[in-house]
Amino acid sequence: MADAPLNGFVVVDLSTGIPGAYCTKLLSDGGADVIKVEAPEGDPLRRWSASGAQIGPDEDGALFSFLAGGKQSVVADPQTDRTFVDDLLASADAVVWSPGSPLADHLAPVAMCDAHPHLIVAAITPFGLDGPWSDRAATEFTLQAWSGGIVGLGRGAPDRAPVYVGGRVGDYLSGSYASAAILASRMRVLAGGGGELIDLSMLESHVMGLTYYPVTYFDMLGKPWRDSRKLTVPGIARVKDGLVDVGCGTAQQWFDLCAMTGHEDWIDEDAPLTITEQANEKSAELYAWMAERTGDEVRDLATAFRIPNAPVATPDTIESLEHFAARGSFVDHPAGFRQPAHPYRITGVGLRPPSRAPRLGEHTDQHRQASRTPRKAGTAAERLPLKGIRVVDLTTFWAGPSATHLMALLGAEVIHVESARRPDGTRMIAGVPVTEDQWWEKQPIFAALNTSKKDITLDLRTERGRELLHRLIATADVVAENYTPRVLDQLGLDYAAVQRIKPDVVMCRMPGFGLDGPWRDNPAFAYVIEAAAGISWLTGYPDRNPYEPYSLGDPNAGLHALTAVLLALEHRRRTGEGALIEAAMVDAALNIAAEQIVEYSAYGAVLQRAGNRGPTASPQNLYRSNEIDEFGRDDSWVAIAVETDEQWQALRGAFGDPDWAADPELATAAGRRARADFIDEFIGAWCRERSGDEIVDALWAAGVPVAKVMQPHRQTELEQLTARGFFEVLDHPVNAPARFTTMPFRLSRGPRPVHAAPAPLLGQHNHELLAELGLSAEEVEALEAEGVIGSGYCS
């Protein structure tokens, strides 16, 4: 690992569960020395199998082995080894902490910061370290409910409860955010600054990853993004030989689908209905058309029409899919199972290959006997973590802009490149009529994804536009793009070309399916990425087709791309060399869905979707309350999840200890799981007589994880988010003030406020940036007259 970017970076892992484990896995893969400090009984993940596989006394579960590969294990007694742990922290660079283990509960994050001012302390908690909910019980399932992520994208059938996204995806999102935050903070430390506290809220991670800026949308347009559960049609549909996912993310894709299925007569460019509503009206005919064909026939046609599509991968079929086989997307783990390869590929940068997980306490003696040199805190003046980094941002829609947006919020100068004739796709969606003045400036998704950025318009179809882009790239540290590979190939802007312009540039390419393989040029929106990676397979009711999560694939890809960029920048700092990053959306998705392939290859188990029941809690479900929702429907729900026997006793107490709950068989998780329908009947009846607030008040006070299933545009009503300042109000030269999410972690050294400026107007910084490149005012005016640049949309 001599060429690894994090070689010599020491991280103490005091966490339990997936979020901290995935965070430190990403750091370990980058070359960090991760010392996992465990209480004598070990991390519970060592004994975990989602399929209930029996794990021998001298074995570790496959998921633990996947997450802990390449780490070291040290056992410390929380009562007697405080000095030992303190010595480890004194000589470490960072620590990852989460509550819930006997050891971690003796070490407060703020106290670790005070005792070791050099240390980056990342605390991962359900709601954050402060605020009125900071000590409340939660699970990944109840956090999905609080975030609005369960109902926010209309997932589920109108005649049933909505459904959550399976696979504990929120845990992985939280771990990814923590990893990126640590690497960003490290850049501040490397510039001479001191350590800091990273206070990460898993609830806020869920908001960012499972909803689509609903508060900004509501503030700017006065209506929720969706007000009911509607199928995404065709979405996931049954074909002759299985399931495929075919989706329409734009009006043009809907028109192409009509043509593909022989229904040009359905095309109505002036229709008052959204494309989702139009597709729902024609769903019966579309499903019948697909059912008459094989998956390959449907997908070949969709690909020819440039319509996003993918097979719906299952744990037992995913490795055999031609694209993954061609790209080597799965690799062997030393413990004997298969796992996804890294979520990104970085040329010339060594990433740790799959490695053996440590046995419990394997490295204890080594670290007790080691001589350590305490780190010293830097004293340089405060600065934003990415200050001094310039990013040329060629991204569009959600995945790419979400990566560059975080860079901008963390202090990078991000220059978003658009064209007056072909602006960023998010300027063109969301329902603002084109008859409105400056309608392209009024789209909430663009407004939310691009704060703190600059904007330049260059028509890259012209030689002059391409020449100016080359000159801009020559000033950049990072170039980011997320088109299909053929787009940059046509522009002559592959890595070799960019490297000739700026030899030490970090180029981050984010194609949906990667730079090679048979699906390389397929368009990729979040939903087909989720289907191809297996996330959709675990989402939905067991007796119906799966549902698309429809959100996760984009922000998850952006997060992993950001981590890769930070690793590549550290490589450049050490070596002076640039790098090409291939951060394929599907590779990032495969990694957060890893448990499925790990369980199948290790134990032969095909994990199944189970509605709102889940692998870690029983009972776990959604239950209807007695309220009518804001849309006049009997469609208000609460989420309840009991993960421990103690929480079960608390639930019984909150119910008044009824006779049905006293059955001894229900005292264990296994017994409760076997009689889940029986339990749900009683819980459902109890909830049906109460409001959501009454249910939450009764159960949360008793320590039971519970949540109201929130409409996502109501996120600002959550007092916890308000207390933490998660939303900031921004003014705008065209739009009225609106509320914007910040980041799901707070850095004790800032930024505060998080947003430096609202999203830029189209071409707002043309004159500033072109003058910086040496152009005179007259030359800039000539470019505008020629249409090479522009400050308004030109159809």
UniProtKB/TrEMBL annotation:
Pfam families: CoA_transf_3. Gene3D superfamilies: Crotonobetainyl-coa:carnitine coa-transferase, domain 1, formyl-coa transferase, domain 3. The keyword Calcium does not apply. It comes from Mycolicibacterium pallens. Keywords: Transferase. GO terms for molecular function: transferase activity. SUPFAM superfamilies: CoA-transferase family III (CaiB/BaiF). Residues 348-380 are annotated as: Disordered. Residues 359-368 have a biased composition (Basic and acidic residues). InterPro entries: CoA-transferase_III_domain, CoA-Trfase_fam_III, CoA-Trfase_III_dom3_sf, CoA-Trfase_III_dom_1_sf. This is CoA transferase.
